[in-house]
Amino acid sequence: MKRILKIIILIIIGIVLSLGVGTYIFYKNIHVPASNEKNTSTVSRNESQNKEQAIERKNILFVGSDENNLSDTIFVINYDAVNKKINILSIPRDTYYPRPGFNAPEEKKINAAFSEGKIEGLEKAVEDLLGIKIDNYVILNYEGFKKIIDTIGGVEIDVPFNMKYDDNSANPPLHIDLKKGRQVLDGEKAIQFVRYRHGYVDGDLGRIKAQHQFLEAFLKKMLQPSILPKVPSLAITVSQYLKTDLTASEITQYAYQFIKDKPSTINAMALPGEGRYEGNTSYFFVDNIKVQEIVKELFSDEVSTSNTSTTSFAENKNIKVEVLNGAGIPGLATKYAEVLKNEGFDVVKIGNVIGMTFTSSHVYARTDEERAEKVAKTLFITNVENDISPDANVDVTVILGKDKE
């Protein structure tokens, strides 16, 4: 849904800009930091063209939230204007993300970082998880999503099977009742479609695939000429229900570029991994090695300088690391030791933790915290602790938990 929101804004503002209508409404109502806004009304045609040419590629975090401020849908998207591509990475809300001081089972899911730490907490969680920098955010609640779909006259979707689910304990209660077959979904039915996940064999990943399907159908609908007369109403709806730290001028700039270029490629992927139970709680455990490959493919131009893709191979050779298997899974330490070696780190020891099993992975700084952070970023481990010792034979100790299975 995050992805949906962004494109809604891009298309809306782009069309509004090109037609010369509705821009005033957007500028007047959009929830953006006023102190950062520039007066675009005086920007000349040449200045606009220069901005267009200098459009910056950013990683934008999209959150679809319910009435209780819970993040039900999480996307990271960037628009590659140079190659005319849209890159989307969906993050399951049950993704295992332990945080120091939060020990309850539900608190170890990434969506808890939003409900407890708000957008700043979720931004940090996603940055830690992916090793990228989040530049901006967009938040849309369910009511806004429904009104947007109703405003454009619904979206045509082929519902793959009968979807029936009721949760009276939810606030508000969730009731889903969709019949199999191709049909036009209004706002209420569209939110049911993108939220449904209990009938998919692969759980939340199945829902993510359905959301990608909905996105494609939504984009097709948004590019139809029949949408043009609805632009003013659509702009008002978006401005009322959307929160973002993007300025109106930034949104307009990206929108214009989007409409002008008409991107032909959408790379929509889900975070790699698998869902399984830890005790009585269902988590989605990330495949950290595959994540690195996807991050390089989708966000290579945006990977933060702390990520190993931009860390010099020569510097890593001076960092001595020991990798210990704390999960009791055969070959686990060797597997991740190879990842470190491929990035230039000097792995001086591979072994096992005796007498204790770790659920989550940890990185310990034995000589220098900065070196430990580099190793943690390479392996996408969020738990970094200091264990400085003048007698240490290594710079960093890695203990792999079951989350690295």
Topology:
Layout: H1 2-19, H2 23-29, H3 45-53, E1 60-65, E2 71-80, E3 85-90, H4 110-130, E4 136-141, H5 142-151, E5 155-159, E6 163-167, E7 174-178, E8 181-185, H6 187-195, H7 204-222, H8 231-241, E9 242-244, H9 248-261, E10 265-270, E11 273-278, E12 281-286, H10 288-299, H11 313-316, E13 320-325, H12 332-342, E14 346-352, E15 362-365, H13 369-379, E16 384-386, E17 396-400
Parallel strand pairs: 1-4, 3-10, 13-14, 13-17, 15-16
Antiparallel strand pairs: 1-2, 2-3, 4-9, 5-8, 6-7, 11-12, 15-17
Helix pairs in contact: 1-7, 1-8, 1-9, 2-8, 5-6, 5-8, 6-7
In the sheet with the most strands, the strands line up as: 9-4-1-2-3-10
Termini Cα gap: 29 Å
The 3D shape can be described as globular
- Mean residue pLDDT: 79
The CATH topology of the largest domain corresponds to Aminopeptidase
Percent strand: 15-25%
Helix fraction by DSSP (H/I, runs of at least 4): 25-40%
SS content category: alpha/beta
The CATH H-level homologous superfamily of the largest domain: LCP protein
Q: What order do the helices and strands follow?
A: HHHEEEHEHEEEEHHHEHEEEHHEHEEHEE
Organism: Thermoanaerobacter wiegelii Rt8.B1
InterPro entries: LytR/CpsA/Psr_C (IPR027381), LytR/CpsA/Psr_CW_biosynth (IPR050922), LytR_CpsA_psr (IPR004474)
Pfam families: LytR_C, LytR_cpsA_psr
Transmembrane segments: 7-27
